[in-house]
Amino acid sequence: MDWGMANRMAQLIKEDGRCFFMPIDHGYFQGPTRKLEEPRKALEPLLPYIDAVFVTRGVLRTSVDPAAAKPVILRVSGGTSMVGKDLAHEGTTTSMEEAIRLNVAAVGNSIFVGTDYEHDSLLNLAKLVDEGNRYGIPVMATTAVGKELEKRDARYLALCCRIAAELGASVVKTYWCENFEKVVQGCPVPVVMAGGPKVSTELEVFEFVHDGLQNGAVGVNLGRNVWQNDYPVAMARALRAIIHENASPREAQEIYESIKQGRA
Question: Which of the residues 36, 201, 226, 248 has the least number of beta carbons within 10 Å of its own beta carbon?
Answer without folding.
Answer: 201
